[in-house]
């Protein structure tokens, strides 16, 4: 899945790599899934989280593309956190089976793991 631009290709590779870690299974980069949301090959338990994660990635590509810059995985994570927070606010309006923690719980666990890894890395920007 190159989409004709190396930077965008790298971004989508990082997105699918992150989503694979979040879902705890390999999710192959797929243009139909990334651009059109065709989730037929996904297991039922990931059919809500993965499309939401990809939708935030599509949004990030569109925003950065308009500015002539490439998106970053860090921007995607911030966007996904914002979606997570919004769904927490509106979660009380949803049926019990659609509560935000059911959808975003794996993403929150991924962020905790990622934060733990960053704390273990030395800070190369300070002397």
Molecular structure report:
The protein has helices at 6-23, 31-36, 49-66, 73-90, 100-120. With 127 residues, the chain is mainly alpha-helical. Helix 1 (6-23) runs antiparallel to helix 3. The radius of gyration is 15 Å and the shape is globular. It starts with 5 loop residues before the first helix and ends in a 7-residue tail after the last helix.
The main sheet comes to: none
Low-confidence stretches: 122-127
Could you give the count of β-strands? 0
Secondary-structure element order, as H and E?
A: HHHHH
Quaternary organization: single chain
Percentage of helical residues? 55-70%
What percentage of the residues does DSSP assign to strands (E)?
Answer: under 5%
Overall pLDDT = 74
Number of helices: 5
Structural class: mainly alpha
Q: So what's the overall shape? A: globular
Rg to the nearest angstrom? 15 Å
- Ends apart, CA distance between termini: 40 Å
